[in-house]
Protein: DUF2914 domain-containing protein
Organism: Nonomuraea rubra
Amino acid sequence: MRVRAGVVAAVAVVVTVVVAGGGCAGGVPAGDGAAGTAGGMRTSPQAAGGEASPGATGGVEARSRATGAGCNGTSVFEGDGFPEVRGTARDAELWGLLFVRATPLRAGDEVKIVWRMTGEGPLRIRAVHPDGTAAERVWGPEEHGGSSWRRPGQEWGTGFVFPKPGCWKVELSRSRGSGHVWLPVR
């Protein structure tokens, strides 16, 4: 009977670790080796200053918070995984997942950003500094078939190099729907 109780306890521990820790969950690949995962970002309206933010793993409840690290009205949300930004959009909803250790972004470094945007049609994207300097789009947008990051809309990946510090406007548009986010770069 003791052996049986020990086996049951061991199974319970493994199940708890896998379910609570997301041990078997897939995820958005880290890409740049940054710490954290895309999982576990779920915000209650109270935690995010009134903005709801569904989670990346679908069932894990964790808190993320607006850090104040954004610029020109775009909040950066940080929690258990990579930082997120919610864009301002017309006829669409727009989210960005920043594959970095922390914000602000660093000038001269390539940064992977995964975008989710509702609407219709192909995605067009550009990033521009207030002085008119364009960021280098190294790759993308590449449409993704899916991931564990739970946000509305279709998903694309991009790689950008922001050549100098400032508050960069990233503009995204589709045949139906357009939006933008402001990203802080130091």
In short: The longest strand covers residues 136-144.
